[in-house]
Structure formats: C-alpha cells, structure tokens
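Model it.
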Amino acid sequence: MSAKMFKLVFLCGLAIAAGCQTESKPAGGAGKQAGQDHHLPGIDCPLRKAGVDPNGLRPFAEVEEYIAFLDRPDRAAWQRPDEVVAALGLHGNETVLDLGAGSGYFSFKLARAVPQGKVVAADLEPEMIRHIHHKAMVEGIKNLSPVIIKADDPQVPGEADLVFVCDVLHHVKDRAGWLKKAASEMKPGARLVLVEFKEGKLPEGPPEAVKIPSKQLIELVNQAGLTLEAKKADLLPYQVFLVFRKA
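Modeled.
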C-alpha cells in the first residue's frame, strides 16, 4: 500500500473507530420509522473491542515512519518472509497466531498461506492493530483478525495450531513467565515457532546486550513446557528458526 493510500485509510479509520463507539440514528433523532428499527450495524473495530480511545494514539507521521521501517523493501533480503512461511509447512486450514505482529509484515503472508484457515494478528500497540485492520479491509482479506493484547499475556487462542513469534521475545521483560503463559494457553499438539537474532556483530538486529543466546532460548521454551522439534540453522542469515511443540 502506498503512503498516500495508507494515510487515507488511516484518516478514515479515525472516523470509523470514533463512530463505532456511538450508536447511529436516522436524521431527526427518530429511532424508528413505520415500526422499523433503523439502527445501523456496528463496525467490527478492534480498538472499540479493547476500549481504546482513538484520540489518544500517536501522531500519524510517527506511526507512518515506524511502519515504513518495519516494511522496508530491503528487509526481505535477510528476513526472507516467503521462505519463512514456506518453512512453517502449513496445509492451508490452520489457525495461526502472529504474536507481536507489528505492522503485519508476516500476518498478511500467513493469511494467504491459510485460505481455509485464520490468522490472528496480536500486538500491544493499538496503532499497529488499527493499521492491520484497515489494510485488511482495503485489500479484502477476510481471514485476518487483529487483536490488542497486554504485555504480560500473549492471549493464545485455544484453537491456535501455530504460534508464530518473530523478533519479539528480546523485547519481553519477563520472558520465562510470558512463555509459560503462552504454553499454558496452547492446545496439545500446537506448535510454537520462534525467530530471534543470532549472537555476534551483524548488519541487522538489536544491540548485542539484548540478544538471547540460542541455548538460552531453547532452555526458556523447554522450561515453559514445550519440546524442541526442529532447528533450521541455515534458513536465515541473521536469525535462528526454532520449532517447538506442546505434547
């Protein structure tokens, strides 16, 4: 989506999000006419569901800049999103949770990979959830549902077959508690795929001080109650790709 189109959708979204907090009535204030109820149907707004005031969100220019950074074209060269999605081995009918979805960089690709399934794009930032919601509406993507979550609760849907967590865990303060909560909410047989930056000096990624060593990543997830199923060391140049499963 172009910056111009995004800005249009963003501004329209302000009206939508504000409007879905109020009840629409016909002109003149009449609630009914000729015995018919004229209340308009509500808009399925994730901000409204979470009780978020759209007037308190960050300025458009700041949000646009952050989304542009997350979706920058050169990221694909090392993030390899198509290869990552292919490596998930999806059959097309799964429910996938994109946990820490950000701008929806992977969410939209995942939605295309499960045409008979569903993708839940979860993030802490209401601005990101609003962006995903509006982009999905504009592009007519019906199997993508954005939701706002809290920092201490991943809110894994009970029906999720796969929990996808890319470049997120190093941001989490209580990693052990967060992973334990996620694992407890997963159904038996569900998978968790964890992508995190490798150690060492790399041209991409967070500061070395916040990176999590691969051995520690595996220990944290094992302690949460999940078993390592696969480790694709060569899939990504700067990141590890770990697959865990709940027994």
